[in-house]
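Checked the freezer inventory, then went back to the computational side. Two predictions to log before the end of the day. The first one is the construct we discussed on Monday; recording sequence and tokens without edits.
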Amino acid sequence: MLVNKNEKVFLIVKEIISNIATTKKYKIMREQQANTGNTSIIKNLEFSLFYDKSKGIFTTTPKQQITFNRLIEIYTSDFVKHITDKIQLAPKEHKQDLKKQLPFITPYGTFEPTRKKDNLEFFNNSLIALDIDDVETSEAEEIKDILSNNSSTLLTVISPRKKGVKALILINDTIPFKECYNTLKLNKKRIAEALNISKYKENIDNAQFNVTQPLFIAYDKEIYYNFEAEPLDIKLEVYQEPIIERQSITSVPLHAQNRIEAYLINATSKLEQFFACCSEGNRHANIIKVQAISSWLHYAPQIENDIKQRLYNACCSMYGNEKEALRNGVKRAFEQAWNTHPKANNSIESIINELNCVA
């Protein structure tokens, strides 16, 4: 029976979500898995695996939950190598579309039923995911070399474009789930210093500190991973949520990376403007309006933290300052409205369908 190319790729994908056979070993891999406390921590790590080549980064429903061992099997699989090779050989204008064919994980834990912060089921609270981007190929090789020689590095690979490095770092401190993003962003300089990559601090992408942020799996023939990684000795500074005395509505939007983000950011700006004009008698009743935007953020969970903070600030601004807002129960009303189920948005679905047609 003849199998066309699309069917062949589909069959190869099954390798990811079923039984992946690891056939290659690398000299830089530390193969011995001694029964140490560190190994136990590593064995307990869990990730959600996502794959939908029609949606790519916008995939929100996980295929399955995987361990670190399985993650390495996927990294070294023939399927991932096949797609990575295609990305590297493709013209620049086609690379981003091909990237959608790669699987990705959420390094900070597992999600069910969808990739949304409120749906986090298991949190890897002693793991830092790093995405160091926009560097030269020689710099990427230097960063990877530095991290490969650090005993706390669990995994490090160079991206398909050879312009970035991704890494998983084990630490001996505990990251608070609710403030994961803010804590790691606050401690970025400290983390870079501890890993001896201070000169690349500005290249560390803050977005990777979001618990919902994808980490794409791409092939690197010299992948480094260490089953005996030792937690990095670092004490994270505790993030303290600031009390907002007065928060004006910003006219400068977030920088959208794509049309879906642009749609959500625009909707946020319009709601901010509405709150700014809201009369005193209608303030509290209108907080429920944030629920719609919250229900659409499953399309772009990577900007959820920023959108949520902006809308909370806008709600507080209706009362003059956060102290007055807290006295009027704004925080509780806001959280109740925000914690909603994902819903479809026809405009966003149209954007996705249009992009798929173009692809």
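The second is the one RB wanted added to the comparison set:
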Amino acid sequence: MDKKCSRCKCFKDTNEFHKNRARKDGIDNTCKQCWKDIRQEEGVKEYRRKYKERNKEKIADYFKKNKIKYKMKRYKASLVEYENALNNQENACAICKTSNKRLVIDHCHSTNKFRGLLCKECNLLIGFANDDIITLINAINYLKKYKHGPSGNLKEVKRENNDENKNDTDCRY
């Protein structure tokens, strides 16, 4: 099978190209000989710097299109799940319901699975609480205790001292 080198424009057998997992076909688009020439002429770092300079828009478009896709892959979910969450949440944070903020991908730290979309502040809120429901309920009670006017406190929840109850690691809330 032949492939055209992007530098010398010659058609060469695929074994004349380095492997490149980032490419769809798994083969680099510059032949081995051209890479050898590049390294001798200007060095790889300089070549990459020049390439990035010449193709700023192309690179920015690529990353913009694929950023969410790759993040969702990291959290074992698809782009369709992301879009469904975005539509179900009406483009708003799942916790505070604010729609004018940039949303981030929330995931369970123990299973690494996608849970939903949150604004940065709400994501930090549950992150600093270590995803612990009891801590968050106690925080709500604390805020209600010092709120002016009738509070209607939730029943205070106390944690037992065994480590099993400290964190719910299966993320089934």
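For RB: Confidence is low (pLDDT under 50) at residues 162-170. The CA atoms of residues 163 and 169 lie 11 Å apart. Let me know if you want it refolded.
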